[in-house]
Amino acid sequence: MGASSSSSSSSSSASGLKALVIGGGGFLGRHLVDELLARGWQASVFDVRKTFDDARIPFFTGDLRKEEDLLPALRGIDVVFHCATPAPLSKNRALFIDVNVNGTKTIVAACKAAGVHRMVVTSSASVIYAGADLELANEDVPYANPPIDAYTETKAEQEQIVLDANNDTGKEATSFLTVAIRPHGIFGPRDPHLVPTLATMARAGKSKYIIGNGKNVVDFTYVKNVVHGHILAAEKLTCGSKVAGKAYHITNDEPIRFWGFMEQILVGLDYPAPYLHIPYWLVYFIALVLALITKLLSPITKLNPTFTPLTVALAGTHHSYDCARAKKDLGYAPVISLKDAIAETIATCEQWRNPKAAPAKPSKKQK
């Protein structure tokens, strides 16, 4: 199914509400800002640096770890959407702790000081993924222990900080209502990670391999559906609502074979489909050895291997998530199907198309 109109995909009760999107200059945040405006909200942005100019959108720059930087942006705000985070594949654990944990504590305190009563935080479905098969897991599955990396470790802690801060007094003026949205495998126009990484690997001749038997099923989620889930949660976040204090998985609700998804993106950009199978155990073993070598040599030199135990697990295991709770409590349903989402994404990625691909032959009608 294609996208429905923005105004019809959400209730009109939120029209005129003021939202601050922390991290609104990034991939997800910018899409969220655009959709909020389309649905009649007033939206402003807080980010570490200014990434765009739009006369409709006040843009505050500052450090989210400093309450004095946040307070001017929070004045008069009805809902805060917090979707700022370091890049998930970063190796900088200290930065994750500083931003996702300490920064979130500061944001919660600043919201309360500024009289903001609602907060939606972007978490991750991967907080429950421990590196082994996980099929249609719901929100009752506990956090992964141990976590698979510093990103998911700090996202779980961030989520708990926000949900623990939820306080429904029965009166909006004295309540602080919170909710966490857990997307998985976000992709779409302006995506800085998935398509650029795939195209770069394909141009280097590294996209022909399939890890394992290629049958592992994963959830990928179009950015506009993630945005839709965030806005629905904000609209439902009222005193007495069952939404307050909970986490919600948001996906396209169309689990797909991981390598089938990769094939559609690659072929859509005129690259060959992956076809060479490598046993999962072998690639995982190589990744473990590389990780050990990287650690041993770290005092001398900095290595950054492409294959890590985590990236191998993500490419070779099942990890899909049940979003039944979001359907029931938020009224969530994807507004754009996976098929249309992939087509829309490819259409916006001409710069990543295979430069060596043969031009398409004209049809008989074109001759």
UniProtKB/TrEMBL annotation:
Residue ranges of domain 3-beta hydroxysteroid dehydrogenase/isomerase in the record: 20-274
Gene Ontology MF: a single term: oxidoreductase activity, acting on the CH-OH group of donors, NAD or NADP as acceptor
Regions crossing the membrane: 278-297
One matching Pfam family: 3Beta_HSD
SUPFAM superfamilies attached to this UniProt entry: NAD(P)-binding Rossmann-fold domains
GO terms, biological process: steroid biosynthetic process
Gene3D superfamilies: NAD(P)-binding Rossmann-like Domain
Keywords assigned: Membrane, Oxidoreductase, Transmembrane, Transmembrane helix
Family: Belongs to the 3-beta-HSD family.
PANTHER family named in the record: BIFUNCTIONAL POLYMYXIN RESISTANCE PROTEIN ARNA, SHORT CHAIN DEHYDROGENASE_REDUCTASE FAMILY 42E, MEMBER 2
Protein name as catalogued: Sterol-4-alpha-carboxylate 3-dehydrogenase
Native organism taxonomy: Eukaryota, Filasterea, Capsaspora
